[in-house]
Design a protein that fits this description.
- The protein is built from five helices and six strands.
- It is of the alpha+beta class and 168 residues long.
- The chain has one domain: 3-Layer(aba) Sandwich (Aminopeptidase), CATH 3.40.630.30.
- The protein has a six-stranded mixed beta sheet, sandwiched between helices.
- α4 links the parallel β5 and β6.
- The longest helix has 15 residues.
- The protein binds coenzyme A (COA).
């Protein structure tokens, strides 16, 4: 992966996978409909979708105003949106005041899977965290996503903790 970043997060990063050049950058408001479609195009995501654009735009504004959040969009060489993830920096006092990077809402479009794009996105996310002082990356993944578990294990993630959820 080459990196055109010059200190700020404003510029696109180029990710080269299988001889193709993808770009990774901070999502913009106009990306929201395509992002919502990508998140919904999934056996679990489809059930979690709501039919209200304003809800998503309000959530996007919250994310966009928070300097600890990076909602990433990945585009293919034709400009099509083929990937996303939300990378959150979480400062904390535990583990010697270690900052963590939390990676959630990860999707690679079906047509772009299996060629290394997801792995390259995570390499970028880990580096993004390291550059901001994070010492640990963490995520949760649904118990039913067996292929994703294999993907994360290959990246070095270990199931050392149980993720618990409670609807509020
Ligand atoms: C999991 C995911 C992000 C990986 O991205 P990717 O670009 O396909 O990943 P890579 O090409 O770098 O690595 C491929 C590995 O990903 C995993 N994988 C998961 N779903 C896959 C799919 N539908 N097609 C291909 N690989 C998949 C496999 O472990 C695969 O390894 P394998 O070739 O040994 O089977 C992507 O497949 C995806 O979005 N899947 C559906 C949604 C999902 O599970 N998101 C994670 C939520 S926690």
């Amino acid at each position: 992966m080459s990196d055109r970043e010059s200190g700020s997060c404003a510029e696109a990063h180029v990710i080269e996978v299988a001889g193709r050049h993808f770009t990774l950058e901070r999502a913009k408001l106009q990306d929201v409909p395509a992002l919502v479609s990508l998140l919904a195009d999934d056996p679990l995501g489809a059930d979690r979708h709501v039919d209200d654009r304003q809800v998503y735009e309000a959530a996007f504004a919250d994310i966009d105003h928070d300097p600890n959040q990076f909602l990433a969009v990945v585009r293919d060489p034709d400009g099509g949106l083929v990937g996303t993830m939300q990378v959150s920096l979480i400062p904390g006092l535990s583990r010697g005041a270690m900052t963590r990077v939390q990676i959630e809402a990860v999707r690679v479009a079906e047509r772009a899977r299996g060629v290394g794009l997801g792995s390259a996105m995570f390499a970028w996310a880990h580096e993004h965290g390291r550059r901001r002082g994070a010492g640990l990356a963490q995520l949760t993944t649904d118990n039913t996503r067996v292929e994703a578990h294999r993907f994360y294990a290959r990246l070095g993630y270990q199931a050392t903790h149980q993720g618990l959820k409670l609807p509020l």
